[in-house]
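As the work plan foresaw, the team has encoded backbone shapes as discrete tokens. One protein thus recorded appears below exactly as we store it.

:::
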Amino acid sequence: MPAERVLVTGASGFIGPHVVARLQAAGYLVRITQRNAAPVADGVEAIVTGDLAQPIDWRPALAGVSHVVHLAGLAHAGPGLIEALYQRINAEATLELAEAAREAGIARFVYLSSIKAQIGNVDSAEISETDEPRPDDAYGRSKLAAEQGLAALDLDWVSLRPVLVYGPGVKANMAALLKLARLPVPLPLGDLKAPRSLVAVENLAEAVAFALTPPCPARRSYIVSDPEPISVAEMIAAMRQGLGRKPSLVPVPAGLLRLAAQIVGKSDAFAKLSGGLVARPDALLRAGWQPPAGTRQALARLAASARAG
């Protein structure tokens, strides 16, 4: 039986190369889309489709394809971008591709959504897929709109809502935390114990591969996270273990740290650092998804790879 071919969009981003490698390891033929022609990994086929901001004729890209993994989109860039741009790229373009996939007889369409489609910015919360979605920014609303549009199509689709993703090459908040962990000094973060859900990039790639298989029920959304949440203090300790060092965490009360952050104009940054969010992947685990990486071990490897780099 010939190998099935998967079309992957957004393969050049942080998550994309991990997904492509996992799909190849699973025996799929992989075709990726590109805005402009660029070198690709061994064994990967590429097709130039252009920018999602404009309508695309997806028929050439979908020819001979069995499944679609749609990773491409406008990232969560914070305030400043107009909502219409998020809606165009994250919702309308997704549904245009999904409709073309339906017409092409695609077996399954996997969409990379976000936990932001489920919930907005909170200091502390525990959520599940059964909670009513309450996105509170343009990015989250655009991701939810895409999911709602998929639900209206006669198509086998799966939407994955990852929490904060970490791994080699990570940027933004996790990169800042890694930078803190690498400082050769004790850190006053020992009392930051609010639990937080993360997902290792290899676990997310495994979830994408699992979502393409019959054991994963279709036509629904799934939270994707490492099974056990972890606190900021535990994250730092794990990273420093990967660096071959002791945790060196001083238990300064969070209230004092919050006051200090307010004085220096870093209240928002501290809120993101100290807040908690528990989002468990119960539905995926029940379906049979088996994440390969443990959180502490993956964080230690991340720090070790950053040091080597």
